[in-house]
Amino acid sequence: MTSPPAQQDYVFDPVWEKETERLRTNEAIWDPGTLERLAALGVGPGWNCLEIGAGSGSVASWLAARVGPAGRVLATDLQTERLGALAALPHVDVVRHDLRAEELPHAAFDLVHSRMVLQHLPDRAAAVARMVRALRPGGVLFLEDTDSSTLFRSFLPEDFLQDVRAAGYGLMRESGHDPRGGHVDLQLVLAAGLDATAEGRAVMVRGGSEQARHYMLWLEFMRPRIVAAGLLDDTRIDAALAEMADPAHHWLSQVLISTVGRKAGGAEPPR
Ligand SMILES: C[S@@+](CC[C@H](N)C(=O)[O-])C[C@H]1O[C@@H](n2cnc3c(N)ncnc32)[C@H](O)[C@@H]1O
Q1: Which structural domain range is residue 57 located in?
Q2: How remote is the CA of residue 245 from the centroid of ligand 1, in Å?
Q3: Among candidate residues 26, 66, 29, the one with its CA nearest the CA of residue 45
Q4: Residue 191 in domain
Q5: If you take atom 14 of ligand 1, which residue's CA is the nearest one?
Q6: pLDDT of residue 112
Q7: Strand (E) positions, 130-203?
Q8: Cβ–Cβ contacts within 10 Å for residue 134, how many?
């Protein structure tokens, strides 16, 4: 795993001054459900886990605590600067790795997990094939990506923030993001020959909360692109940010689709 080139088609900017906060507030939305599912899969002492596109590292940290000193965690990302504290743990490796282009260790892991990464990649079948090769027989592939169609649906008028969603997600799509990425995951995992199931979850977000802050940061990041494309003007974006900051408002997140597949053969991971 050598130093990859910077990813040109990843919509977000890894060195944007608010990117760490954007990633942490995303964790605030999705971690409870992800960690609950990882616990239900039986992840425990002695497991060898791979967290791909680890972001600011909350899931990899949880895995490290869960597998304990008898287990191992490999956390990868294009940008590993946010994972420094994890790298200090003796049973954790942090590696800069480009899932689009670089191979992973073969038949090595009891668990491969990746959240909100695949939906940004151009050749997702190749990425899934790489992940499946990384699993040992009997190992578990756990992918989480979204269907964005529910975002901002609420009790408020039906068009609440829908212009913002259409503008932002339209531009993200042009940069390679798939608004139905979670559905694609299931198809790819089945096509790779794994025994797979999937389910979706959405979170009700309250305006002004840490979770709402994630969507505000998303809009702040997208703002110059949306305005430059002539999709919305600054006045409308300011009004949308005020709506997101209002604790009287509640709205649905995207649906996060969790796909779990098990590679044939081998023993169950340690319990
Ligand atoms: C939306 S963030 C999700 C972060 C984390 N998985 C989470 O859910 O909290 C996407 C992450 O994928 C990483 N990423 C994007 N393209 C990648 C690639 N080709 N290989 C590895 N990581 C990538 C980004 O640097 C970023 O940390």
Answers
A1: 19-262
A2: 26
A3: 66
A4: yes
A5: 53
A6: 98
A7: 135-147, 195-201
A8: 21
Question: pLDDT tens digits for 55-81?
Answer: 999 999 999 999 999 999 999 999 999
pTM here is 0.94
| 8 inside domain | no
Note the pLDDT of residue 193: 96
Tokens describing residue 198 = 């999937």
Into how many domains does the chain fold? 1
Nearest atom in ligand 1 to 144's CA:
8
Residue ranges of E strands in the chain: 48-52, 72-77, 92-96, 109-115, 135-147, 195-201, 204-206, 250-252, 255-262
Q: Which CATH number is 68's domain given?
A: 3.40.50.150
Q: Within a domain: residue 154? A: yes
Rounded distance between C-alpha atoms, residue 216 and residue 28, angstroms = 14
Residue at 271 is within a domain:
no
Q: Is 254 near ligand 1, meaning CB less than 6 Å away?
A: no
List of residues 6+ apart from 128 with CB closer than 8 A: 118, 141, 143, 185, 188, 189, 192
CB 238, CB 122: distance < 8 Å: no
Residue 210 CB less than 6 A away from ligand 1: no
Whole-number Å distance between alpha carbons of 187 and 202: 20
Contact 9, 78 (CB under 8 A): no
Per residue in 146-158, pLDDT (tens digit) is 999 999 999 998 8
